[in-house]
Amino acid sequence: MPVAQLWRLRRICAILRPRDTVAQTIAAFGQIDFVWNHLGLSGPGKVEGMAQADLDLAFDLNLRSIMTTTEVAIPELRKRAGRALLYTSSTDGLVGSRYSPANSAMKHAVVGGKALALRLAPEGIRVNTVCPGPIDTPMFVQLGSRPDQPQRSREEVEKGTLSVVPMGCLGQPQEVIEAACFLISDAASFITGVALPVDGGFTAQ
Question: Domain 13-133+171-196 in CATH: superfamily?
């Protein structure tokens, strides 16, 4: 059975209101066993002439919301055994991305959350990051049609991407979920401070 099927999942939506998200989760389940901060926005593709509002929104989604959620979740996680924090970054957070320097900088900052692994390890709270590479999602499909990027068809985007992925294919969302659920689970009980690429070998080059 896939790891992702071992939990009963319920989606709780809150846009930039992480304090409410934590409160809603406790109201729904009575406790918090783990937190997976999984959200993001690619942000401006160019640094020159970028709109400050676009940069602020990307920063709020990619970084500020993660730190605020972490702040309010830690007291709840301290109440449980086998607790875990998980962040979603990107391979852009492991290597540079010429297509979105701002996003790459923010994703590197998310990977830097490993500092919390050192701070929280004595309390038994693990902190890891999952770093997806090219995944077959609507966001990937839109890469070639963004106004601040060179215009390319999906076929052109996919061909260019697969040329640098050793496994020669796009990843699937379920593969990211499986990796995330492993890092959250007790099977990873001695793993903390890791940034795990799910990228078909892209960052191994």
Answer: NAD(P)-binding Rossmann-like Domain (3.40.50.720)
- Strands, sheet with 195-198, edge to edge from the N-terminal-most edge strand: 34-37, 83-88, 125-132, 195-198
Strand partners, 132: 198
Q: Is the Cβ–Cβ distance between 116 and 108 less than 8 Å?
A: no
Is residue 127 a contact partner of residue 36, using CB atoms and an 8 Å limit? no
* CA–CA gap between residue 118 and residue 163 (Å, rounded): 37
**C-beta of residue 36 within 8 angstroms of C-beta of residue 73:** no
Q: For the beta carbon of residue 36, count every other beta carbon within 10 angstroms.
A: 18
Structure tokens at 202: 């892209």
pTM, whole model, 2 decimals?
0.86
Q: Name, in order, each residue with C-beta under 8 angstroms of 156's C-beta and a sequence gap of 6 or more.
A: 144
pLDDT digits (tens, 9 = 90+) for 92-141: 999 988 878 888 999 999 999 999 999 999 999 999 999 999 999 887 77
**Contact call for residues 144 and 160 (beta carbons, < 8 A):** no
DSSP code for 171: B
